[in-house]
Amino acid sequence: MSGSDFIPFHRPSIGEDDIAAVAEVLRSGWLTMGPKTREFEQAFAQYIGCKHAVAVNSGTAALHLALDAIGLQPGDEVIVPTNTFTATAAVVAHMGTKVVFADTLPNGFNVDPADAAARVSPRTRAIIPVHVGGEPCRMDELGAVSAKLGLAVIEDAAHALPAEYKGRRIGTISPLTAFSFYATKTITTGEGGMLTTDNEAYARRAQMMRLHGISHDAWKRYTKEGSWYYEVHEAGFKYNMTDIQAALGLCQLKRADEFHRVRCSYAALYRELLADADQVELPEVPPDVTHAWHLFIIRLRLEELRINRNEFIEELRKAGIGTSVHFIPLHLQPYYARMFGCRRGDCPNAERTYERVISLPIYPAMSVEDVERVAASVRRIAEASRKVQVSVAAGV
Description:
Layout: H1 16-28, H2 35-48, E1 52-56, H3 59-69, E2 77-81, H4 86-94, E3 98-102, H5 113-118, E4 124-127, H6 139-149, E5 152-156, E6 164-165, E7 168-169, E8 176-180, E9 193-197, H7 200-209, H8 243-254, H9 256-273, E10 280-281, E11 289-290, E12 296-300, H10 309-318, H11 334-340, H12 348-354, E13 357-360, H13 368-385
Parallel strand pairs: 2-3, 2-4, 4-5, 5-8
Antiparallel strand pairs: 1-9, 6-7, 6-11, 8-9, 10-12, 12-13
Helix pairs in contact: 1-8, 2-8, 3-4, 3-7, 9-13
């Protein structure tokens, strides 16, 4: 099979406007954080509907700055869903804080609010809901738990632009929300992220800490309006975004709604084409949310198949279809097992789900024909691999 016949798991949507915007910044001579970054922050805050947006070099950095903003201390605990990428938990570990993993909903990918509540201890300071695939978590229930127990809520919205929960856009619900603009996300800056908040104190803290803990406007010191003098207030981080990234982000943000419409149409097409594939469970969308459709995750009914999930993925690869798995539960990973005493059986729902999930390609750079081909390949492999039901007449 030629490379041109392969449908990759993801391909970014980069247009000539994106390229021209980046080239303009390169020609300007101002490459690092500067006026374009500030423009991107303002545009993103307006798009989300929040007061403050702080641009950083990754979604991981946004999460780390959020934990710093709430004053997390060594010895504290943070509830983290086991079904997420390592970044969500790693930033907690970097703070010298204990990660406590929570299980997923029995038939879903997001954290189970009841299970999270059951794992709260007197040392718990925060919970980090992750909107897996772009489906918003049950924020009412999580908010009620957090309010009752006095916990901070920091949303990991790496997948959730633009998603809504009961009419409220993700990024406006909790005190702090972290977005990612990694290459595979719904809009991209290559690498990059954004922290949103309505709390001015959190915003100022994040602005200072993203650039070495120095005066929040110190990036201007090399401009005509700037001063050579600055003050170091904290031992901060090197988390600032560059104007090169911000220029790309501004162009991508202008097309975010267009990208979302395409993702929604492809999700609907997958659901139509796979509706009667009995060996496959399709993602269910609650009626009170707007799904971002960063991912389209199917679950295999393994009891009806002669092959396992890994073999199914290999058959799709042979058919020229790229896929992924979201996620390997973190409590099963060697580092977290070693550091926090995690073991198999701690989060049974997530473990069962992990064994049977496959993320199919879904992105604007696909064509309708690509989506149809992916769905046809899933149907063909499922049908070819289904267990044969043998009925034996009584008395024979």
